[in-house]
Amino acid sequence: MISFKNYKYIIIKYIHIYIYNTSINSYKFRKTEFYKFIIFFALLQVEKKCFTIITNNAKQFFLYVKNQ
Question: What predicted TM-score, i.e. pTM, was given to this entire model?
Fold first, then answer.
């Protein structure tokens, strides 16, 4: 099973890649990539420690995608 540190690193890196590589004005997210992210994020709920640490970043990320 993936360790707590690896989970945190992957999810933060994943969010960072999509936000950093795309400008705010022309933000587009492929559906396949978005669903992959949702599935991966759902797996993190098993580790509640990791979930609580990344919750704030993930909420901002999901709200940002939803508003576009």
Answer: 0.25
| Residue 21, pLDDT score | 46
Q: Determine the length of the chain.
A: 68
Q: Residue 9: which domain range? A: 4-21+37-67
- 54: tokens are 């990344």
The pLDDT tens digits of the residues spanning 6-58 come to 554 555 555 554 444 444 444 455 555 665 666 666 665 544 444 333 444 55
Domain count, the chain: 1
- Considering the domain boundaries, does residue 53 fall inside one? yes
Q: Is residue 47 domain-resident? A: yes
Q: Where are the beta strands (DSSP E) in 2-65?
A: none
